Amino acid sequence: MITHPASVDADIHPLESFVERLLQGDALLPDTETNVLEVVGILKSYGVVLDAYSVNLCYMADHQFLVLFPFFKYFNGEVTLQKLLKFWWHDRINYEYAEYCMRTMLWHGGGGLDAYLDSPDFAQRCEAAVQAKTRHNPPIRLLHKLCPDFLPEQVRMLAYTSALGQFWRVMSDMFIDLSDRYDRGEVRTIPDVVDHIKAGLVAAAANPITYSVVLDGQAYDLLPASAGLTFLMDAAVPYVEAVFFRGTPFLGTVSYNAQAGQIPEEQNRFEYGALYADPLPVGGAGIPPTLLMQDMRHFLPEYLHDFYRQSLRGEDDLRVQVCQSFQKSMFCVTTAAILGLMPHPADTQNPAEQQVNRDYLLSWMNRFTTSRLPVVQLG
Amino acid sequence: MLSALLLIPIVGAIAIILWPGELKAAQARAASMIILAASLVWVALLASRFDVHGSGMQFEEALAWIEPLGLTYKLGLDGLSLPLLAINSLLSLVAIYATSITIHRPRLYFALMLLINGAVAGAFLSENLLLFFLFYELELIPLYLLIAIWGGARRGYAATKFLIYTALSGILILGAFLGLTWLSGSSSFDFDPSMAQTLTLTEQTVLLVTLLIGFGIKVPLFPFHTWLPDAHVEASTPVSVLLAGVLLKLGTYGLLRFGFGLFPEAWFSIAPWLASWAVVSVLYGSLAAISQTDMKKMVAYSSVGHMGYVLLAAAAATPLSILGAVLQMISHGLISALLFLLVGVVYKKTGTRDLTVLRGLLNPERGLPIIGSLMILGVMASAGIPGMVGFISEFLVFRGSFTAFSTQTLLCMLGSGLTSVYFLLLVNRSFFGRLAIAPPTATPQPDVNLPPVAWSDRFPAVVLALIILALGLQPAWMTRWSENTTLALHQPYSVVAQLPRQQVSQLPLSVSCSDTADEVCQP
């Protein structure tokens, strides 16, 4: 987790009101009836999509280990003509988006996973697995000799693939459970949603993140339990950092969003994650979230679909509307993460702890100044 | 047969005005569309019976009207007027279709639109100078009212300016016609290419210049163009479609039919000046278009530039260039109508045409992607990209004019390049980038949400785009009607008149040089 010092004067911070809101147990997203409907509805469909992503990511990590031409990596081991035709028809789950998120995590790094993948322990384990995999493949062995960093980097990517698959497994179940509770009337407000997610994150916080592949009947532990990687700090927090905050440049969009002053000049200062992204270009070529919105569109609960149909353009701009709701829901997930990681309880009476909490929240607010936080307040 | 093209819309207009029962806007619109569709079918029928090998007037109709004044009701159709009649009927239909059913005072509106259609058809068909003038003036009043009643905020100013300019244009044209008839000693205003033969070159030139200014206002050519951008900006979309697509063509038609047709000798003597005038008009129109920030004004100035090509081609007066001039009229009619329709949709959906504000309208979900794509097609056609009708007409104009006025032609080609400049500015500013319809503000704003575009809004533009593509890929469908007429038109009457009698009588004609041919045979 990258923490930022509260460098701005707390008295005049433009997002000061949100600090108060969070300390009082409210969320970053206003608590309105439509917001609850949108957030829960979209998280339901997100849960369904994440389930598919998670299954596929784990399949790729486990069964497509260093496969040179993984033509059927999205088929989860079941290659039929019907599936192939459906794939070509493109009315399918866009697993490419899951890989986009995985690569975003790999690119930005952070957390224990990133550190472990650069450790000698991992290098040793990785080398053993690579040797086992390339035992009968002299050209690839030669490649490995010539470019010794190439295959380990692929293995690092597969490690992230597995980690993201495991992370999304938990998130998918959590969101489906949220939807079920909403249907039963147990979740009625945005703070209820945040509480549900926070509880889910806390419950899974210590889940180990491990990864091993079986080659020629022998298991190779690439992320062993001994590395001590856990769900919250080594998967969830780097994910939030990489995908919610930083994101990656969208080819073709960068130039014109730069015109609108939305994109920092340096790539490593990039702030184009889910909390910053502009939903309007969704639907255009080269905009990765289009894939996610397209996927979620298939699994919208009827009440949410109805809500979208009543909008000005009806179903014409469905993917943009899905994206707007999704962004709102991500502010709820972020609220849960921020509250979950708060150094001291929100209701602490100790002034020193209160100050620490305030500084902690203000450091988050600094990062939100260019986000879509002010826009999602508009309804 | 030709009278039907006048009667159908004019009787229709009267019927809509006088209809005894209640007539809602939607009903009046539907009735108008049926009337104009009938008119379009009638043009198609005429085209099917039109002899493309003939160069003279066909389907002629003559009826004595006010003989002492020399006014006869004489109509005729040739390869110059047939395509323009088709454009008139088609674009009038498009304009009516593009009219909202919520329009106020629908009876008057639709009646005026039909009246314009009838009057323009009359002008294109007239074979009598006075009759042409009457129709030319008749079209003026409805258009004035259409701008003055259904126009934008400054409609009064724009409509009055239009009226003053075009009325002056009418006066000049009438003056030239009267001068020609009186000086030639004729008692009839019937169109006759030999009328000016007895006039001195000076007399011819004076009359021609008068006509040129008269029609130059209508075309419009620099410096008589200033009424046009104002009229376009204030006019509603359907009226702009008619104005750019059809009514400007009255000016260029007049230049060819009466300027060049009646005064070929004088025409050739001042042709270099006319070509240079065309250059000024083309370059001025294009440069002015570049500096515009109102989308509609930009398209209006592009009209000034593109109509200049017609003058260039007419000045060159080669067989190819005159054909190019006719095609340019058709092509400009279709393309400018398409562009005005699209600008109309943009304005209707975003509430602005300001190019400093509009951005990203090609946005696939929230923007106007199909309208934007059609706009790109339209501006490409206007810039003369091959495969579309604009290329064919501009190529013929330049190819035909180059032999006569190479420098002027090259300079006019520069105007074609400038078309790409201003239209790329338009497309780049308003259709690419992040979607926006208002200037950025310091306070957070909700995401832009434009109303949906119905297929009925897109339909007329799609039809025009298809025609633009079809004629661009198969130009023979357009050229076949006019080739013979323009070929005959380009041969100056004086050359025929100078043939010695013996040569004429030696021709294998079935009739001798008798009474009817007397005038032609005069040495």
Distance between the termini of chain B: 37 Å
Mean pLDDT of chain A: 89
Helices and strands of chain B, in order, run as HHEEHHHHHHHHHHHHHHHHHHH
How many helices of chain A? The count is 16
Query: Which descriptor suits the 3D outline of chain A?
Result: globular
Radius of gyration of chain A: 22 Å
Whole-number mean pLDDT of chain B: 89
Oligomer: heterodimer
- List the strand order in the largest sheet of chain A: 1-2
The major beta sheet of chain A can be summarized as: 2 strands, antiparallel
How many domain modules of chain B? 2
Poorly predicted ranges of chain A (pLDDT <50, ≥5 residues)?
1-8
Query: What's the count of strands of chain B?
Result: 2
User: Which structural class do the helices and strands of chain B define?
Assistant: mainly alpha
Describe the overall structure.
The complex is a heterodimer of chains A (379) and B (523). Chain A is mainly α. Chain A has one domain (29-67, 92-346). Chain A has 16 helices and two strands. Chain A has a two-stranded antiparallel ribbon with strand order 1-2. With 523 residues, chain B is mainly alpha-helical. Chain B folds into two domains: 3-440 and 450-491, no CATH class; 496-523, no CATH class. Helices cover 69% and strands 3% of the residues of chain B. Chain B has a two-stranded antiparallel ribbon with strand order 1-2. In chain B, helix 1 runs antiparallel to helix 2 and helix 4 packs parallel to helix 9. The two termini of chain B are 37 Å apart. At the A-B interface, helix 11 and helix 14 of A face loops of B.
